[in-house]
Every structure is written in C-alpha cells, then in structure tokens.
Design a protein that fits this description.
Distance between the termini: 46 Å
CATH architecture of the largest domain: Alpha-Beta Complex
Oligomer: single chain
Helix content: 40-55%
Radius of gyration: 19 Å
Structural class: alpha/beta
Number of strands: 12
C-alpha cells in the first residue's frame, strides 16, 4: 500500500521542518510528501523543497480546507495521510495505522497526546452533539485504559489521520466554506450519513502542539468555530430543525459562547454566529432518521465517556439542561 502525506502550512517553519524529519524517519515512510503552502513568509516553502517535499504554493492564505483539497488532488497514493504542521509523529505512526486499514475501513486515526511529555491527551476521535458542538474525546484527560482500545469511529481529526483515496471520490473533499475549524467534523458527518466508518487505533501515537498558528481562543479562531457550528446546522439539519433540535442548539451555542466570553472573545463569538445564522435560511433538508441516530449515538458516547473520566463543566451543564 502506498501512502501520500499532505501537510497544509502557513508559516511556523520550525514546526514544518520537524514533521518532515519525522516522516523521513518513519519505519514505513510515505511514497511522497506534499506541502501546501498558504502564502508563508518565513521560508517554509523553500525549507520543504530542501527537505525533498513537493510544494504547492497558493500565494495567499486560503484556509485549511482549500489547502488540504489541493494536496489531495495532487497526491497519488492509495492512502492519504493528512497532517498538521504542529504534529510530531512516533517513528512507527504510519506502520501502525496501515495494518488496521482493511477493506471495511475507510480511514484510521491514532492517539493524539499533548506535546511536552505531560501524559495528557489532546484527543482521540471526535463526537458531535445535537447542539452542533463537537468534543474531541479524551481532550485534556490523563492517558489511560479508557483511551487504549481500538474502536469503530465516524469522526476523526484531520490533525493526523490517514484516509483511503477512494473515500474522497465517494464523500467529496472538505467543504471549503468552512475554511478552518470543524471542517473535519462536517466531513465525518458526511461519512457517517453514507455509512463509511473508520478505526481509532491508539497504538499509533502522535504529539500535537495545538492551535500553533492562531491560538485556541484567538478571536479569529473563535469567529470561525462559532460560524462553522451553525454551518453544520445549515448543511445537515432538517428544515424543521428548530422543532427537533432547537433547544439543544440554543443550549450548546450559549454555553460555548459563555466560554468564549470567559476567554475574552465574546465579540468574535457574536460575529461568527451572525455569519453562520445567515446561512441557515438556505436549509432545505427533510428530516433524516440516519442523522437522528448518529447524533443520538454520539451523545450517548459523550455522556458515557464524561461519566467514566470526569465531567467537563460544559458537558455537565449541557446534559443537565437538555
């Protein structure tokens, strides 16, 4: 099996050089490495070429989704590894993912640890609640048995995962309207609706710096997340979503907004919500039993994992109110 590695990047040359080094050191190295440069000004593109990678220069920052899509289109491998520039890979990361990738598996992700050797998880796989808020399962939890069992999943972070090339012909590429943030959750929802599942393989370990480009609560990050939560509603929820999911969406969005306010990004949250709500008017989907089943299963997983590993305040309040 051949693997193409695709790395979208925007500045942070040192981080890019580190992951390129990790790819060269893999026990099963990729057949090609494609760096898609979003108009970096720090020599990132030149550094990637010097390291032997193919480079697609976009000239300006067109967002994560656009860059990833260009990389996928240019790649030739049977499998495509999508990697953030702020990830460090274990030496056997690719090798441990590929044996899991049988004919019934469309994608595989591994365990993401927080960079710095703290033993704290960045996350494993993603889950989406009825309120259109996503949780990266295990985020900010100590590593342990709860996160060491392989399992079937539908939502995997594009932070570090591999995908069967033919999946993109079946599901489509990332939605470029999302630019950055939650584009992978929306992609996962399309996978779930189409019955295309993957595997979480905790034996493949990567370390993630996290929000290295903008920062977790940077106003631009908050604006995009806030907007994209509503784009998920606009794209996938039924036209009578207010009746079916309105209370859950209201609770989830207000609770997430409270977090944004706490981190000094309240105006960015409002701007994002205004942008996203404007798109909801285009919703024309009929009620879909598959969507209801997917969201119900995700919420059951979130609740079970929160109960087993300790509730975050956000999810304690969300489930108490919904």
């Amino acid at each position: 099996m051949t693997v193409s590695a695709v790395i979208p990047t925007w500045n942070r040359r040192g981080l890019l050089e580190s992951i390129l080094e990790d790819l060269r050191a893999q026990t099963l190295p990729p057949s090609e490495v494609i760096v898609v440069d979003n108009g970096s000004t720090d020599g990132s593109a030149e550094a990637a070429e010097n390291a032997g990678a193919s480079v697609i220069r976009l000239g300006t920052n067109k967002g994560f989704s656009y860059a990833v899509n260009r990389g996928i289109a240019a790649s030739a491998g049977e499998w495509v590894a999508i990697l953030n520039n702020d990830v460090r890979l274990g030496p056997d990361w690719i090798e441990r993912l590929l044996p899991t990738a049988d004919s019934e598996c469309w994608f595989v992700s591994g365990k993401l640890m927080r960079a710095g050797g703290s033993g704290i998880l960045d996350g494993s796989f993603d889950l989406l609640c009825r309120g259109a808020c996503a949780w990266r399962a295990g985020n900010n939890r100590p590593d342990g048995p709860a996160w060491n069992t392989p399992r079937k999943v539908f939502f995997v972070p594009f932070t570090a995962a591999i995908f069967r090339r033919t999946l993109f012909g079946r599901i489509g590429l990332l939605d470029e309207e999302f630019e950055s943030y939650l584009e992978d959750v929306e992609f996962g929802l399309r996978c779930a609706l189409a019955g295309c599942s993957g595997v979480y393989q905790p034996a493949a370990v990567a370390h993630h710096l996290g929000s290295a480009t903008l920062g977790s609560w940077n106003p631009e990050t908050v604006r995009r997340v806030s907007r994209n939560q509503m784009l998920i509603v606009a794209k996938h929820y039924p036209r009578d979503w207010v009746r079916r999911y309105g209370w859950e969406v209201l609770v989830g969005q207000l609770l997430w907004g409270a977090l944004a306010v706490r981190h000094g990004a309240g105006w960015a949250w409002i701007r994002g919500k205004r942008e996203g709500i404007g798109r909801i008017r285009t919703t024309r989907r009929k009620d879909d039993a598959r969507l209801r089943a997917i969201l119900a299963a995700c919420e059951a997983d979130i609740r079970a994992m929160q109960e087993a590993t300790g509730y975050d305040l956000f999810w304690r309040l969300y489930f108490a109110l919904t």
